[in-house]
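Lab channel / #folding
Pinned by the channel admin:
"Please post every new chain as: sequence first, then the structure tokens as a reply. Keep commentary short and put observations after the output so the thread stays searchable."

First post following the new format, from NK:
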Amino acid sequence: MNFRRDIVQIIRSRLTSDDEGVKINRVTGFSQPNFSPFLMIDELKSDSRDDYIGGFPPHPHRGIETLTYMRKGHFQHKDHMGNIGELRSGGAQWMASGKGVIHSEMPIMEDGDLHGFQIWINQPAIDKTKPAQYRDFQSETITEYTDSELGLVRVLAGNMSIGEHVLSGPLNQTGVPLSVCDWQAKTNQSLKMTTTATSNLILYVYEGQVDVHDQKLRQGELAVLSSGNYIEVMSRESSGVMVLQGEPIDEPIVHHGPFVMNSMQEIEQAILDYSNGEFETY
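Reply from TO:
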């Protein structure tokens, strides 16, 4: 039997900035079970170099994965493991911090538009003690599918069932099953998806306006969907939507800055380990 997914909650992104002044539109879901395995979505969008030139200097993480997707712009990743990668327009990068990583993401671009996303993904407890990992994916490796009724879908991670097609993205090694895609549509194009009944599904509109069955979703809004196994989204104007689907992690979440663990004791240990320089030895 088919069950339709409907919007159960709409969250408006809020404007914030990091310590270096990078402008961010942010949606958080650390305490929401129907957000899991995702924790946070940051949208970076500006046409002014002053809003991004400070970048993200070296900083630590433990207990999360990050998926960064650059629609426009050019940043460079460096980490304590010796990885150096360039995040160019249309490309993506994935990092699993595990028991600890120190990394930076700094702009190579001096001017021009910046538009991208960083998605925080929780790690199961067993993965929070593993060594960190890193991979990047240039634009040409991202799976694309287009037709006149759909528009364009770019699949970054996992498998997406779009209409009669199953599309697989280049990232398939996350700690929990998930999929992430970027849907770009013109007026009156529609995204028809089937989903696994046990997964959580969230939509973030970064451009335009769409209808999720009979409910409107506008630019800068994120929708949390009910359980079910199918959804249809209709664009009412030229629109862009990030579509995130993933199996929830049924474990406690304790969040403190760049660390996401299962208990306050583990958070305190992460702070101590970082302060003692232990992250640099992993």
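NK: The first helix runs from residue 264 to 275.
TO: also worth noting, The CA atoms of residues 206 and 269 lie 37 Å apart.
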